[in-house]
Amino acid sequence: MGDTLLVADGDRHGGGEVALALDVGGTKIAGGLVTGDGAVLATDREDTPGARADADDVFQAVERLVRRLLALPDADRVEVVGIGSAAPVHLAEGAVSPVNIPAWRRFPLVDRVRSLLGGRRPVLLCGDGPAYAAAEHWLGAARGFDDAICLVVSTGVGGGLVSGGRLLPGPSGNAGHLGHVVVDVDGDPCACGSVGCVESIASGPSMVRWARDQGWSGPGTATAQDLAGAARSGEPIPVAAFDRAARALAAGIVSAAALTEVRVAVVGGGVAQAGPLLFAPLREHLAGYARLPFLRGLLVRAGEVSRDGGLLGAARVAFAARGDADPRRRSGSGEIRSREPRRGG
């Protein structure tokens, strides 16, 4: 559990509606108060209980976090609640089955949070990948683009789609999950049960595991950050691990572009913090795969939203569902549009 952080943000700290946002992951459960124009007024977190915890143990962490946020001065302005959860999610049921939270299988998270709040506020659910896409499209590197795929490359590989200026979560809420696009039909097993998924090649743990199999002798608890440090010093196996991950990501991104004609791919998350080690080979492989005329010119950008991106996205989805994504529109359409002119790529 971390201490609640109150964030001053100039004039944005003024009036207007506020969303209580939650970002549920396998390592931490983050929470915050977010205004309709994207100011994060406060953040807090709880560690996600471990694999031996039962469903109620995990929800009690959510409950502690929500109660602390509701005790803050700006909490009386909360009108909506947005939840971004690790996938898969089940939107129609308001339930979640995160791969990395084994205690929750079809856990009725929306109903439990709504009950915690006494049923007084709308509670909106989305996957963490679509939440990240909503945040980048609102305030980050996909801002101004009508068609985008946004990826989080970290301990897993998640993603979300924006099409025609609208978030496209799909019927179940899991559309855009590029991590489980198969890019190697004879590849390694993936945690999802398939083989050769992007995640089985490009996630941080997968990169480290592959490097070790090739003979890399990094520290016993090595992470993708350790691998990046070794690559920067010129060690060939870590360099090859980043190239291999970049190739898998490029294949997945081009596949997504062929299906949806996205014009920009935004890549964030811990692995993306390696910067040119990942992005240089990613752009090179992308150019090699994107050969058809309508695929050429596909852009790749580093993510721009802060570590609060999951909270921003969950809040954005909650406001949009009420037709309040842009306070100047209030059309009731639920569209999630950025505030700059359209760009085609």
From TrEMBL:
InterPro entries for the chain: ATPase_NBD, ROK, ROK_cs
Domain of life according to the entry: Bacteria
Protein name from the UniProt record: Glucokinase
Biased composition (Basic and acidic residues): 336-345
Organism: Actinoalloteichus caeruleus DSM 43889
Region (Disordered) residue spans: 322-345
Name of a matching Pfam family: ROK
Entry similarity comment: Belongs to the ROK (NagC/XylR) family.
